[in-house]
Amino acid sequence: MRATMDTDDPWDGTGPGSRRLLEAALAAFAARGYHGASTRDIAAAAGMSPAGVYAHHRTKADLLFAISEAGHRHALAVCERAVEEEIGPLARVRALVHDYAAWHARHHLLARVVQYELDALLPDHRAVVVDLRRRTEQLFRQEIQAGVDAGVFRTDDVDSATLAVLSLGIDVSRWYTPGGPRTPVGIGRSYAGLVLSMLGADSPAAAPPQERASGR
Amino acid sequence: MRATMDTDDPWDGTGPGSRRLLEAALAAFAARGYHGASTRDIAAAAGMSPAGVYAHHRTKADLLFAISEAGHRHALAVCERAVEEEIGPLARVRALVHDYAAWHARHHLLARVVQYELDALLPDHRAVVVDLRRRTEQLFRQEIQAGVDAGVFRTDDVDSATLAVLSLGIDVSRWYTPGGPRTPVGIGRSYAGLVLSMLGADSPAAAPPQERASGR
């Protein structure tokens, strides 16, 4: 069991006032979409006046960027940790798929805003977020390619496989329902198995699946 | 080559006035989300006055339902045709994955509204749409299960595999960009191969992939 509490918080390092505002904005964007949520809605959800929101120097566009950047950084950190903790492409891809899918379940409202409101970001904000997405994608591609090079995966189209693997994780945020029959860890485990099979791994069940069940 | 023009139109059977309004509402919902699009926006996009919209007896909620129902019925019809045209679970699952993924690319704006605005539907409308979704899901599950029963697929969790396969198709509508490097048919073909591998099919490349390249 590893300590995950400090890194399981996407708002880590945010002061209490900002956190309250970001969480209110997130709830409003998740419920009504970025364009459907007003600054007034967000202020009300945060228990602030609209003037209080501006006192934080935050426009609606700034709030979306703060949420999108925090979410993307957090998901990337989760993926980087998964790669660091495992040895060899099969174990690393299993860990990446597990933790990325579980993240999209555990933080499903954050993930929805982060993944579905890219077009609403201002160009400068979007550039920052696109770079974080590129780095996340790169992690997956590099480990899938390493597995192909090492002969543990058999796929002739690493780009399509990378796209499909990321897509599976992202779409969890659309369908996941808290309290439903599937848990974040359960989703992570079954998706890891399906992806290893998709990649043509010889023995997807080779290493113990409970290895990554430590509360992520 | 089969004739697909008549069934490739999700608004088939809709009169010209309704079609113009539905297409305008779809564009507005896709651009700003259901909650972010006003009836005034929709009327303007359709070249009508707001009163003209009401003359069609359409509220914003009715328009969303009409779009969602048409989109779900069209996707289901595409899946039903894929199953009817092929023999055996491997060919049928390949066709289902191909045509479902290609549909989500070809009709990506419609698909986004259909897939991401479920929570915005009124309860009675939602019930109709949920039933169409259940029938689509059932088609996939039944063919995957048939493949397991026949020994052509090896997966010990048909529910998770069905979820993952549908999820891959649906998420195409999020990332697909017209004019980008991937075409609807190209996506369909590579996803069909990846899914057959995911399901543990012995020889995913057994049948000619160009079989389903006929313009879908």
For this entry, give a set of tags:
disordered N terminus; homodimer; 67% helix; mainly alpha; 216 residues
Task: Explain the overall architecture.
2 copies of one chain form a homodimer. With 216 residues, chain A is mostly helical. Helix content of chain A is 67%, strand content 0%. The first copy, chain A, contains 9 helices and no strands. The first copy, chain A, has helices at residues 16-32, 39-46, 50-55, 60-85, 89-106, 108-116, 123-149, 158-175, 184-198. Chain A starts with 15 loop residues before the first helix and ends in an 18-residue tail after the last helix. The model of chain A is unreliable at 1-6 and 204-210 (pLDDT under 50). The interface between A and B is medium-sized, with 30 and 30 residues.
Summarize the structure.
The structure is a homodimer of 216-residue chains. With 216 residues, chain A is an all-alpha fold.
Give the largest chain-chain interface (CB within 8 Å).
A-B, 30 and 30 residues
* Number of discrete helical segments of chain A: 9
Number of strands of chain A: 0
Largest sheet of chain A: none
The succession of helices and strands of chain A, N to C, reads: HHHHHHHHH
Average pLDDT figure of chain A: 90
Secondary structure class of chain A reads: mainly alpha
Span between termini of chain A = 10 Å
| Apparent shape of chain A | elongated
Q: Uncertain runs of chain A with pLDDT below 50, 5 residues or more? A: 1-6, 204-210
Rg from alpha-carbon coordinates of chain A: 18 Å
Q: Which band does the percent of strand residues of chain A land in?
A: under 5%
**In oligomeric terms, what are we looking at?**
homodimer
Fraction of helical residues of chain A: 55-70%
